[in-house]
Amino acid sequence: MARKEPAADAANPGRLKQIALTYKMTRKADKKIGLVLAGVGIVVFGVFLAIGFLVGHPIYLGILGLLLAFLATAIVFGRRAERAAFGQMEGQPGAAAAVLDNVGRGWTTTPAVAMNRNQDVVHRAVGKAGIVLVAEGNPNRVKSLLAAEKKKMNRIVADVPVHDLIVGTGEGQVELKKLRTTMLKLPRVLSGPQVTVTNDRLRALGDLMSNMPLPKGPMPKGMRMPKGGNPRQR
Fold first, then answer.
1. Alpha carbon distance 129, 152 (integer Å)
2. What is the number of other CB atoms lying within 10 angstroms of the CB of residue 126?
3. Whole-angstrom Cα distance, residue 67 to residue 137?
């Protein structure tokens, strides 16, 4: 036990430093974060304290109000920090992949399964909803990437549903901040073993593609990249 205590003490400053850093980053995008958190904490604590005086137990309800005020403040802080992070990531290359990595348990993400010369990219996630292809880039260009990748998925795992999403703010697109929620709302049609089998099939495809004898070094001068995407893509 004595050995675990120093480790725990060393972890606490790290957590506090991380919270402070998150607050500073959030404050850059959300100038009112301090006032909002203070307001939430004061209101929750004040309500419970007032109820405590009314029922004759101000100490008990005051302590409860303090704990709930801390909880409410933490929840609000987490949501506003997440919103600020999405705002900073919006439009950045690879932002969708970062969100996919944090969708939750049961999902396996493979970033950049398809890409073109303009760096429009398609990411793949596999879960109980099936295969989800997420594209980011120019909406007109990524449609061809999505169509080619979806056709390949249907050929390899024909019995697994394939969904396609384009990240953006235009019509028919999914905003980055709503990507995780959208994926979690997809109907679950696969069991755990079926998800494992699907991942194994796709992993075998990736290994096969990575073992193909592709030329190393820079692309020869005058050589054009195929319209379907990057010749080095998996």
1. 18
2. 24
3. 45
